[in-house]
Amino acid sequence: MTSTLRGFLLRRLLRASILTIVVSSAALTLVHLAPGDAFSDLSIDAEAAAAERARYGLDQPFLHQYLSWLRRAVTLDLGESTRFRRPVSTLLAERLPQTLMLGVAALAIIITLGIPLGVAGGARPDRWWARLTRGASMLLVSIPPLVMSLALLLLAARTGWFPAGGLSVDTDAPLLERLLDTIRSLILPALALALPIAASVERLQAAAVSDALREPCIRAALARGVSETRAIWNHAFRLSLKPVLAIFGIIVGTVLSGSLVVEVVMQWPGVGGLMYE
């Protein structure tokens, strides 16, 4: 690893760490400034509520709470949930695999649909199927994940093809049957999360391929007798990947952040549902 690359990675890591501290500190401050606390609306008497506040340190001055939170955050001690009365790290460990599973499935759909359709549509934009793909992409881009989730739930409820929300797996069933049930339960949430993003990737990839085909190197390859199919998929495709790869990190972040709405609506047992609860 060169010193330039090492310095770049260290700077990005430092900026990410500072951003994480600032955002989390702002969230803690807003929670403190909001009226009431986790025990204000519970049906318990004032003495029991005061005992719970003392247990969690909520009766301490804000500066003391902040320094205590910061000290525990450095050691990755996320504390105990006031709702579930269990360590937050344990709750995250139970839900995180489902969110990662949903994110990986959505990324697979995005890559499988968005990139090939974008290459084909950008190379031959006048074909009827390219126009149909372009129109479908424009429609899907304008649909937020919430509406997409509700539409797919309606489809599942009317047709019965897929489970209408949740992770329906019989723990006593054979391994193959449990795997198939997991895949069936995963299809709708993954589609709800992936389709709008796949449509954006398709539009970006199509524009990039269209620009790549106008490059002098592609024209020279065609003049030397290289077939159009090979020029598109072997040469123009490689040139067009730069814009998509440049935003791949943003795509991953969008998939993980957008999963909250999908998980809540689809009742998928992931981190998004846990945050809502």
Structure description:
There is one protein chain. By secondary structure, the protein is an all-alpha fold. The protein is built from eleven helices and no strands. Helix 7 (175-212) packs across helix 10. It is globular. The two termini are 44 Å apart. The model has no long low-confidence stretch (mean pLDDT 80).
Largest sheet: none
- Number of DSSP strand runs: 0
Mean pLDDT: 80
Envelope shape: globular
Radius of gyration: 25 Å
Helix content: over 70%
- Class based on secondary structure composition and strand pairing: mainly alpha
Instruction: Kindly estimate the percentage of residues that lie in beta strands according to DSSP.
Output: under 5%
Count of runs of 4 or more consecutive helical residues? 11
Distance separating the two termini: 44 Å
Helix-strand sequence? HHHHHHHHHHH
Low-confidence stretches: none
Briefly summarize what is shown.
The protein has 277 residues and is mainly alpha-helical. It has helices at 3-33, 46-56, 62-74, 88-123, 128-141, 145-159, 175-212, 216-223, 228-246, 248-266, 271-276.
Provide the descriptors you would attach to this structure in a database record.
about 280 residues; about 0% strand
List the SSEs and their pairings.
Elements: H1 3-33, H2 46-56, H3 62-74, H4 88-123, H5 128-141, H6 145-159, H7 175-212, H8 216-223, H9 228-246, H10 248-266, H11 271-276
